Amino acid sequence: MDLKGKVAIVTGGVSGYGRAYCEELLRHGCKVSVCDIDSDAGDEMVHNLSKIAKDRVIFCPCDVTDYPQFEEAFQTTISKLGGVDIVINNASLMNDRLWELEVDVNLNGIIRGLLLAYRFMGRDRGGCGGIVINAGASSSAHPMISLPVFTATKHAVAALTSCYGDKLHVNLTGVKVIAICPAPTEAHLAADPRKRLLSGEYEQAWHADISNTMPVKCEYVAKTLIDLLKKAPSGSSWLVENGQLPKQMSLFP
Ligand SMILES: NC(=O)c1ccc[n+]([C@@H]2O[C@H](COP(=O)([O-])OP(=O)(O)OC[C@H]3O[C@@H](n4cnc5c(N)ncnc54)[C@H](O)[C@@H]3O)[C@@H](O)[C@H]2O)c1
Ligand SMILES: CCCCC[C@H](O)/C=C/[C@H]1C=CC(=O)[C@@H]1CCCCCCC(=O)O
């Protein structure tokens, strides 16, 4: 896919990987719609980016748990940037104490993003096709024993990607579906887990879960995103570790 001039929606685009994805897509000539619940940070980010990206970046308030608001973000993007070709379903929450919300953001939010992508990009609905990238994690294939619900959502993201990425759906809609599954960042590995685990008893398990994990840099993951957009086959999920080529995950041995 030639990225120049393509329009990308990035959910959870204001911080971390999402922000790095927005900046990298802009560097490759895309137009970017930064979609996030954090409107103050989103407005500030777009104000700063528009100094270099001029009319190619907008912010849309978007809570991925709220279908009508998510739909409005698609409509605003199409009317202001001229279409939508790429959807990065990146927004996520890691907090097993808020497990119902965690499932609603990490899994249902991605399903909403996919269904909206089909509605606005699907060839069977009058659209031009496109690509959806779903945010998994290393825990899409390897269990984090300290975070069972989070792990379940990330496994589900890979399964959803595998099914919707199948040629049955791609032939119908013209929409490819891929998952990017990065290793944790340094900030993530250093964070205090206590308020995010369902039980204080799981803290030791958290440290065991992240032991031997090498942090990865957001900028490296963002460069990998560009390679995946250009080359990855639909239905595939990719583990991204620092300085290494992405590895295709084997989900259903
Ligand atoms: N940080 C890591 O170490 C790591 C590792 C593996 C995978 N990931 C995955 O990468 C993605 C980004 O993670 P991150 O660490 O950069 O996240 P982050 O916490 O830095 O940013 C998440 C963004 O999502 C937004 N957000 C939260 N709830 C939302 C909602 N309901 N609707 C819209 N936006 C919402 C937040 O405001 C924030 O801007 C996630 O899917 C995450 O699971 C992250
Ligand atoms: C319990 C410790 C608290 C960590 C705080 C932190 O910075 C959180 C980052 C995340 C926000 C949403 C996620 O999905 C992000 C986290 C995804 C990280 C996944 C790591 C494990 C994996 O690679 O599967």
Automatic annotation (TrEMBL):
<dbReference type="InterPro" id="IPR002347">
    <property type="entry name" value="SDR_fam"/>
</dbReference>
<dbReference type="InterPro" id="IPR036291">
    <property type="entry name" value="NAD(P)-bd_dom_sf"/>
</dbReference>
<comment type="similarity">
    <text>Belongs to the short-chain dehydrogenases/reductases (SDR) family.</text>
</comment>
<protein>
    <recommendedName>
        <fullName>15-hydroxyprostaglandin dehydrogenase [NAD(+)]</fullName>
        <ecNumber>1.1.1.141</ecNumber>
        <ecNumber>1.1.1.232</ecNumber>
    </recommendedName>
</protein>
<keyword id="KW-0560">Oxidoreductase</keyword>
<dbReference type="GO" id="GO:0047034">
    <property type="term" value="F:15-hydroxyicosatetraenoate dehydrogenase activity"/>
</dbReference>
<dbReference type="GO" id="GO:0016404">
    <property type="term" value="F:15-hydroxyprostaglandin dehydrogenase (NAD+) activity"/>
</dbReference>
<comment type="function">
    <text>Catalyzes the NAD-dependent dehydrogenation (oxidation) of a broad array of hydroxylated polyunsaturated fatty acids (mainly eicosanoids and docosanoids, including prostaglandins, lipoxins and resolvins), yielding their corresponding keto (oxo) metabolites. Decreases the levels of the pro-proliferative prostaglandins such as prostaglandin E2 (whose activity is increased in cancer because of an increase in the expression of cyclooxygenase 2) and generates oxo-fatty acid products that can profoundly influence cell function by abrogating pro-inflammatory cytokine expression.</text>
</comment>
<dbReference type="GO" id="GO:0005737">
    <property type="term" value="C:cytoplasm"/>
</dbReference>
<dbReference type="Pfam" id="PF00106">
    <property type="entry name" value="adh_short"/>
</dbReference>
